[in-house]
Amino acid sequence: MRYMLIEAVTSGMIIGKDIYDANDSILLCQGKRLSELNVTRLRELGYAGIYIQDNLTRDIRIDDILSPEIRSEACQSIRNFDLDEAKKVAEAIVERILSAESVSIDMVDLKTFDSYTYQHSVNVAVLATIVGMGMGFSADKLKELCIAGMFHDMGKLEVPAEILNKPSKLTTEEYDIIKKHPQKSYDLLADRFELSSNVRMGVLCHHENEDGSGYPRGLTGDKINIFAKILHVVDVYDALTSKRSYKKAYACSEALEYLMGGTATLFDEKVVDVFMKYVPIYPKGMQVLLSDGRKGVIVRNNHISSLRPVVRMVDGLDIDLTDMHRYSTLTIVCQANEDTATPEEIAQAEQERWQIQGH
After folding, report:
1. What is the DSSP string of 87-141?
2. Which of 87, 93, 200, 254 is the most buried (most CB within 10 A)?
3. Sorting pLDDT into bands at 50, 70 and 90, what band is 356?
4. What are the structural domains of the chain?
């Protein structure tokens, strides 16, 4: 299967992976042929793209780290603010990640506008847990980090939807309301004494920047809790790669370049380095444009060089870009069918929206 941006999806295409609605119910099943009405509805709901089946990419399997059942349970525990259930979910997530033969974030998450808050929190929890694993955290510490990820944005539920989803630049007053959400999230967890200070401080400080330009406390470097440093990186990555009412979904490669460009000023360098080991620049099934003008689909990534994966051309030929004898001058330019953005352009767009560099 392959991932297609929603703008390129047309009727007659066959769905490659189940598509879920904001209530975690199946909206469209794998194997269904799309109608014009289906395509229109998916665009209205805010999907950035979907997976489709075709003969060229039939053998490319793309699996989510979480089963649909665990993902649904995680969303429900966040929606209901059920900490006891969240602990069970966190245990399942950590067990799944630690028991996997290899961990790579190949699947592009399919979110609607309405499901964003909960799906985003689950993604942050999963990504944070993977980074924590890469940093050598114990299983118990990983569970705590996972819970922090699940509830890091609870305070946003108290922010009016018309502010959160405002398509234009926020006013100073609106942005001040947004900036209160980490404190609100912290306050919701403050009386849960079974939660460690790492969880609470991770939630409170996940918008702090390394150079002190973040909020709510303007902390710098070593004064920022390690959970917060991890949550900051994965939160920004998932937000950038998600489509919202006020912005497009940036390509994974663009989001990663933005993170790398922000190390030492916005993000902790070690956390970004670990994150880069597990998140491919071009995930499996992604359509890409090569430097010779041809388009292809990512078949698999190479651990030797994430910039040189195996790419399948439209004639079915697989090209391994690590073969420098044959393809030394051939490179991937960008994700196909996508207007590319530089880190500077992303930073400018984020600054215009949030009135700061990064968010």
Report:
1. HHHHHHHHHHHHH-SS----PPP---TTTHHHHHHHHHHHHHHHHHHHTT--HHH
2. 93
3. very low
4. 2-53 (3.90.105.10), 68-280 (1.10.3210.10)
